[in-house]
Amino acid sequence: MREFFGSSLVKVGLGVLVLIGTALVPLVQSQQEQVLTIAFDAADLKTLDPHFASATMDRAVVDMVFNGLVRYKPGDITVFEPDLAQSWQVNGNVWTFNLRRGVMCHPWGGNPGYELTSEDVVYSLTKAADAARSAYSGEYTGMTFEAVDKYTVRITLPTALSEVLFFPKIADYAGGFIVCKKAVEDLGDDAFKTNPVGTGPFMFQSYSPMEKVVLVKNPNYFRGAPKLDKVVVRYMSDVTARESGLETGELDVIEGRPEQPWVEKMQAKPGTVVDTFGPGETVVIHWNMTKKPFDDIRVRWALDFCLSREELVAAIGPAIAEPLCAPVPPVLAGGISCTDVGVLRYDQNIETAMALLAEAGYPNGFDAGEVVTSERAEYLIPMQNIQAQLAECGVKVTLKVVDHSSMHTLIRQDVNPMVLYVAWRPNADAFLTRFYHSASIVVTGAKPDTNFSHIGGVDADGDGSIDSIDSLIETARSELIPGKQIWLWQKAQIEIMGLNAAYPFYIKKFVFARKPNVNYGYTLISTLALYPPINELTSK
Amino acid sequence: MAPAPQLRYHSDEMIGYAIRRILISIPILLAVLTIVFLLARVAPGDPAQAILGDYASKEAVQALRERMGLNRPLWQQYLDFIVGLARGNLGKSMITGFPVARQVAYALPYTIELTLSGIIFGAVFGIPLGIYTALRRNRLPDYLGRIFSLAGLSFPTFYLGILLILAFAVWLKLFPAVGGGDLHNLGDNLRHLVLPGLTLGLIMTAYVTRMSRSSILNVLNEDYVRTARSKGLRERIVIYKHILKNALIPIISIIGVYSIVLIGGSLLVEIVFSRPGLGKMMVGAMLQRDYITLQSVMVIYAGFVVLINLLTDLAYGLVDPRIKYD
């Protein structure tokens, strides 16, 4: 017996040791190359066509590959800078852009690349305006685009718009990213989704499904060659795996978990820096005013007084959450801060809440029924907290937790008496139109979208007439005097708060962790790319 | 000179049996396909909305639904899928537009190498360990072996993976914790395979050790073992020729069954180690409502189950010539 084990086991053991030994031989990677690896909370990419990209991991790649006519200043979304356009003029509803010369489209599929001209810009904006070829077509309705000469583009709007409303449409965000015409036509729309060709600091090199995208530096980038040689974007849905990768040094930057304990845990790790930054996403609860008893303004007031914004912010954590007291966050033009909103903050007052409930005929509270929410922590944690807070006033909420995609479908079918929604929109008009204009009412609106409260379609205050802020939103949209426009947006929000269609809770910031040697090359305050942008200045 | 025709007869029997089994598996695969097809579409959630996000205009979502063919009748979508499959066309991902066959071709080698390494590790260590502990029944090695196999059976795969990452990647910095490595670079590929392979291998070893031990114990007191020993045969011959050969059938059976479990287990390992693979592909497809990719991956999984069952059955005959393929 001893002989048997003495021979067989030793042989097997030796074999395995040899195998492991072979594997252990470290492959000394070239330290000459500066490769930055960033991992996102995603199973795979969805699309790298910038006119469809909406998820964080997709926005990240397109942000590195494409440019807009103008751009948000890196790290600060409150300032616009020239990008592909070096200057512009406006005359009423006509904008004329003078393009930068010598901007090169990246090479693709054997093609050496070429100089970007007005023809490409017109093609790209026309594509962005086409519902079949863009998710953001609604932003460009009624616009016309014209190539005046090789380096001049004219955009005519159906009505004049202020800079603050127009620039997001042509900036390095969503439909504003400029694609290279010849590349799109050569590759076709489908292939372009996984072979993006733009003018940005990094060029697409390869895509490994469910694993990674590799970008290489664009030596001809018009702002100068990037300091990094390569950027590897990895798709890693498991946060523990991302943490391990950061600790082992295989990853340089990782998408974090928007939870205070996670931030604290990572901050405590030596050799790790945690960045929390804005603009963040607004977390707002919308009361469905078509469902009883939410149709009664006294009940909605009662619920507002029952809720504690501070308690929820404390539960989510100060590193992640900032109180939000109006539909439009203060970082945007037209936003209102918690200080300025005054009594419409509806600070918690359980006594007042119970008195209002009693007045409405519910002295012991009521059963609000089933509320569908997402399994994602960003939805589930606040919703559970809201459930507990409302229970203090005798209001029973039964949570039905479904997967994220199902939640989006179901809430758009108007199944919920209340909808907690986490969202970012690029300006006040988008926030107000998408959530509070009557055309956006779910199911029944002219262009059903995300008006879950039905404001504009119901009598919100019980005076017998429909309450709407449509005209305020529309007037503000066409207003060209910045101060007046801001005043109109704020007035619309005061109306919404007065009618109590929604209760804004907090702004959820974005969380990423990185190795300390990663230098983004700018001060990160806020970014619409939803990740800490990697650009030509980034180094490690 | 007599054995040759017997062997040929045996292999003819095996081929006939394999063909029959493959033919029988076609309706099974079809049933799996139909169930997956229907379940994927019964679940709420709109792939077009999932792709475009909540900022997309309604028109854009509608246009994409149209392009994806989601507005067509269900029976038509089903028919297209089956016809495509019969032609060997797995279609294109509804999300990325990337050909599913290319995705599978990329992911499959990673899943195969991972599963195979788990099976081989389990068999190489589990069988000798099972024999060793059985031959030392109720002694210290046996107790330790039983504790090990019980721990292995009760340990969640993902948790073991995380522990191995902590130990060997984070603390000792011996192996990488992220990705599957480059398939064209053997060293890199092996380095990335060690920890995931060990994760599955240790679990498999626990199963195989347990089954080998009980299987060996069943034959240990048989008359032919006593006879062999009383004939004065060397212990090695007794173990190899008399004990192990007769105990192999249940061991093969358990390796077959747990290989199927292992393919499922590889899913978690792929996620923990962020390796490419069919499991990761399936989860991604489910989350993104990518019906086409999901269906294709399920077909491959079902095919694997059928294949492994078939190979297991065929292996019985190789080990024990008394088994006939009817």
Corresponding CATH architecture of the largest domain in chain A: Roll
Distance between the termini of chain A: 59 Å
Please describe the biggest sheet of chain B, giving its number of strands, its sense, and whether it closes into a barrel.
Answer: none
Question: Most extensive interface, residues per chain?
Answer: A-B, 74 and 73 residues
What low-confidence regions of chain B span 5 or more consecutive residues with pLDDT below 50?
Answer: 1-7
* Uncertain segments of chain A: 1-5, 25-30
Radius of gyration of chain B: 24 Å
Summarize the structure.
With 540 residues, chain A is of the alpha+beta class. Chain A is built from 17 helices and 17 strands. Chain A has helices at residues 2-24, 56-65, 118-128, 163-170, 181-187, 189-192, 239-248, 260-268, 297-306, 309-316, 338-341, 350-359, 377-391, 404-411, 428-436, 470-478, 482-499, and strands at 35-40, 70-73, 76-82, 85-91, 94-99, 144-149, 152-156, 202-208, 212-217, 230-235, 253-255, 273-287, 321-323, 367-374, 396-402, 418-423, 502-514.
Written overview of the protein:
- The complex is a heterodimer of chains A (540) and B (326).
- Chain A is built from 17 helices and 17 strands.
- Chain A is α+β, with helices and mostly antiparallel strands and 540 residues long.
- Chain A has 2 domains: 35-252, Periplasmic binding protein-like II (D-Maltodextrin-Binding Protein, domain 2), CATH 3.40.190; 280-509, Dipeptide-binding Protein, domain 3.
- In chain A, strand 8 and strand 9 form a beta hairpin.
- In chain A, helix 15 (428-436) runs antiparallel to helix 16.
- With 326 residues, chain B is mainly alpha-helical.
- Chain B has a domain at 100-319: MetI-like (MetI-like fold).
- Chain B is built from 12 helices and no strands.
- Chain B is globular, with a radius of gyration of 24 Å.
- At the A-B interface, helix 1, helix 7 and helix 14 of A face helix 2, helix 3, helix 5, helix 7 and helix 8 of B.
